[in-house]
Structure to design on (313 residues):
C-alpha cells in the first residue's frame, strides 16, 4: 500500500509494523520461493510545487450489502486545480465483516480502472488502490465507492478488536 | 462491514498535484483475458517499451482483480525489466473466488531502453479477467518524478 505525507525539515525514521489476531506458526518470508518477495519498504522524496488534498476519515463507517457501486459518502475530496497538472490518487480501507467487498475511485464521475480492488472471503480486508491522471484547470471531485455483490450479509462489530 | 472502529482500521483518500514535468504512463487490459497454467507469462498487453534519455525515479503500481473458480488456487505476479525480475515487485493471492492482486514500489530507471512487463504465474486454468464485467480490471501504471529515492 502506498500513501503520501508531508515531512518537516530534519531527520526522519520510517519503519513497518505488523500485528496479528492470533499467534502464527510457520509464517516465513522466503524470497527464494516462486511467489514470496523481499520485505520491502520504499519511498520517494517529492520536491517542487506539490499540493495535497486528503481526507483521512477517523470515524466508523458502516457498509451495507449492495450490488451496485455505491459511494462511501465521507470518503471524498473536492479541490480546484489552477493549471492542467498530472495527479496521483490513493485510497485505503481496512475493513472487518463477512462476504465479498470491492472498492474503486471515481474522479469527476468516471471510474479509474487501476483503482479497482476486490477481495473474498473476509472477515478482514485491506483494500487499496492507486490511480494517475492529468486533470484540467477547474473543480474536481474524487470519491471512494464500494460494492459487495449483494451477497452474504455483512456484519461488523466495532468493539471486537484482536 | 465496518471501517474505523478498531485501532487497526482506517480509511482515507488522497490526491497529490504533481509538478508538471511528471510523466504518467497508464495501461489497462481492454479485452477479456484468460488465465492458463504457465511459467511466468506476460499478462495481456500490460507492458511498456520505454527509451529513457535521462535517469528517472518512478512510482510503479499494478493491479488485477478477476474472477475464478472457487477452491484452492493461487496466482503470483511480478514486474520484469529487460527480462530481469525487479525484486520487491511480486504479489500473490489465493483461496477464494475473487483475486485482487496489487503491488506498488519505487524504481530507478537508468538511461537506455527498458522493456517492462507485468507477468503472472499459476498452475490454474479457466480464469478470466473481463474488463467489461462490473468489478474486474487490470492495469499497469508508471509515474516518472523529479524525486529522490530514500529506501
Amino acid at each position: 500500500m502506498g500513501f503520501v505525507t508531508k515531512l518537516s525539515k530534519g531527520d526522519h525514521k520510517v519503519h513497518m509494523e505488523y500485528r496479528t489476531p492470533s499467534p502464527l506458526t510457520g509464517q516465513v518470508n522466503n524470497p527464494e520461493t516462486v511467489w514470496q518477495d523481499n520485505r520491502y519498504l520504499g519511498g520517494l522524496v517529492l520536491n517542487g510545487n506539490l499540493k495535497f488534498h486528503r481526507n483521512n476519515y477517523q470515524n466508523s463507517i458502516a457498509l451495507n450489502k449492495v450490488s451496485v457501486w455505491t459511494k462511501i459518502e465521507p470518503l471524498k475530496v473536492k479541490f480546484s486545480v489552477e493549471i492542467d497538472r498530472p495527479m496521483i490518487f490513493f485510497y485505503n480501507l481496512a475493513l472487518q465483516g463477512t462476504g465479498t467487498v470491492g472498492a474503486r475511485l471515481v474522479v469527476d464521475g468516471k471510474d479509474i480502472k487501476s483503482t479497482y480492488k476486490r477481495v473474498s472471503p473476509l472477515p478482514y480486508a485491506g483494500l487499496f488502490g492507486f490511480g494517475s491522471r492529468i486533470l484540467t484547470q477547474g473543480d474536481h471531485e474524487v470519491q471512494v465507492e464500494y460494492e459487495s455483490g449483494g451477497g452474504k450479509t455483512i456484519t461488523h462489530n466495532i468493539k471486537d478488536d484482536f | 462491514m465496518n471501517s474505523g472502529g478498531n485501532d487497526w482500521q482506517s480509511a482515507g483518500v488522497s490526491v497529490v498535484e504533481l509538478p508538471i514535468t511528471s510523466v504518467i504512463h497508464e495501461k489497462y487490459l481492454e479485452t477479456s483475458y484468460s488465465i492458463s497454467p504457465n511459467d511466468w507469462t506476460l499478462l495481456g498487453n500490460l507492458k511498456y517499451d520505454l527509451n529513457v534519455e535521462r535517469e528517472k525515479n518512478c512510482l510503479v503500481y499494478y493491479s488485477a482483480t478477476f474472477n475464478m473458480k472457487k477452491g484452492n488456487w493461487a496466482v503470483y505476479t511480478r514486474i520484469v525489466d529487460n527480462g530481469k525480475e525487479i525484486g520487491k515487485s511480486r504479489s500473490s493471492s489465493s483461496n477464494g473466488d475473487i483475486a485482487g492482486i496489487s503491488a506498488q514500489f519505487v524504481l530507478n530507471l537508468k538511461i537506455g531502453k527498458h522493456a517492462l512487463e507485468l507477468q503472472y504465474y499459476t498452475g490454474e486454468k479457466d480464469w478470466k479477467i473481463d474488463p467489461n464485467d462490473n468489478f474486474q480490471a487490470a492495469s499497469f501504471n508508471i509515474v516518472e518524478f523529479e524525486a529522490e529515492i530514500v529506501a
Summary: Chain B touches chain A through 65 residues (CB under 8 Å). The CA atoms of residues 38 and 107 of chain B lie 27 Å apart.
